[in-house]
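so my prof wants the structure for this chain in the tokens format not the other one, which i didnt know existed until like an hour ago. anyway here's the sequence
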Amino acid sequence: MPIDFRNTNTVWASVLAETLQRLGLTTAVICPGSRSAPLTIAFALNNKIETIPILDERSASFFALGIAKKSGLPTALICTSGTAAANFYPAIIEARESRISLLIFTADRPPELRDCHAGQAIDQVKIYGNYPNWQAELAIPSASSIGMLDYLRQTIVYAWERSQFPTPGPVHLNIPFRDPLVPVPDIAVEALETEFNPEDFFAGLEPIFGGESSTPPSPPLLRGGEESTMQQWQKCSKGIIIAGVAQPQFAEKYCSAIAQISKSLNWPVLAEGLSPVRNYAQLNPHLISTYDLILRNRELADKLTPEIAIQIGDLPTSKELRNWLDKTQPKRYIIDPSHHNFDPLHGKTIHLRTSVENLATNLATILTQVPPLIKGGSTLVPPLAKGGLGGDIATATTNISPQIPPLNKGESTLVPPGLGGVITSPSNEYLQLWRNTEIQVRETIDHKISAINKIIEPKVSWLLSQILPPATPIFIANSMPVRDVEFFWKPNNLEIKPFFNRGANGIDGTLSTALGVAHRNQSSIMLTGDLTLLHDTNGFLIKNKFVGHLTIILINNNGGGIFEMLPVAKFDPPFEEFFATPQDINFAQLCGTYGVEHEVIEDWEQFKQKLNWLPNSGIRVLELQTDRRADAKWRQDNLSKFAKDL
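here's what i got, hopefully its the right format
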């Protein structure tokens, strides 16, 4: 796009937009307003950036968040001055906590129009507190010299970088504009065009992206170094890997890395329902999906006490798991490349600031260099490979059969060569206890839920994990849906892609974020409760700009189902009015207002038929009407029983 030399503001704004485009920006979400007119015009005229106008700032910011989650790229977000900027705050908090790149540009009044009741002027400098990765106020636009444009360009380059390095997150630039806000010509500025050489000015600007290339190598943070630590892992027969909530850009590579570590160490993988690991079950023969239910059996929980735990990213949602870790206090290694603290339990933890992919590579390298170790009385022989012993673990673990029969107590079996030639022994009873228990609990859950014919909330997540088209993106709302997914989401090989806002765990902007994930993506799903959807009905205003399809699975229990699971439910009044907060909304009428398709699901066969094939465009709501109290009682009656008799 040519730089717009009609006046100072058009030059300033068009340099900003062009710089971002050359760095790799593909999408800008813009809210209407006068003070931001120079930015709006510049982005709208840049035909290499998709520019999407959205009325409501809170909805717009979560829509941008969803786009950034899906793409892995920074998304620009623009608004006018005043309280418009304040409405971005919840999404900025979520972006910070969930490590998503956002570029926020808030237009502002110039300094002489602040603190004098000029109208639509509030203090916007550092309005988002400590949540941005970086924030600054730009200078008043000036086209008096190329030097000022150099300053603008390099500040934008730095903002782009800081939104991705060292940890992805939001960056905020406050931009004051003086009149004129519209592109009326200014002869003095037009003269600057003769001095401006765009090829020279933008020379050297290339796309800058985060991702795996930005991941640092794992530092030797431990006494004795990384190699010693990994050898300690190899010697440990009671270790676990915890695959927490995650929405990686390259899910198969991520899941393969976790599987490789699991196979190398012979440790089980406790995989959160909001992790892609459960949707790539064929990669990992040691996958444990029912850990929350298993740990409700206190005798079993004691037997399963680990010595070492490798935690990948955030902890799972499960309170049972967190309480168990807090009680047993294993030595815990947290694997994530960001600078965040991922230990709310304040346990015996060491953060390894690396990606799980790098860890898998390093582990494979180190374990091939060490001599055979004695583990519980059985020798760990080097990995088998073509031509005999001594092959590379990374090679040896790529074609492992997922069907490894469980061992009986006391048995010692030679695992097939694909598993690295590890001889299992009685010391592997720990792993087999996990695996055998998983099989039994999974069978109990499947038998129990498959026999339920009435519409009940827990069956929704269980069924979705089996019937969605392959690789379907699904946005899972907070409160009860994320917990039902953790309890009941069945391991599968459908490569389903889970998305969520688990940074701050709020219900703000859920619909808008889901639409952002689904925008220009394959047909997508959103699983939500009624209050969460009602909290963001302005998201439906995006409908006319939305490209793609979103099916909203609405569990309507007329209130906050999660509160029924908490002790406060016993205190009514004020429970029903102030906690459950039923709204008594007719969703068919609500959807009709926005021109959104709506259908009530009467039985499970109808539900399956509607999801076996997804439309290519539009938004539709499939409403399942449930009994909030009855479903809560079902959970309370059954969750502790699935592993009770093991």
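also thought this was worth mentioning. The longest helix spans residues 429-450.
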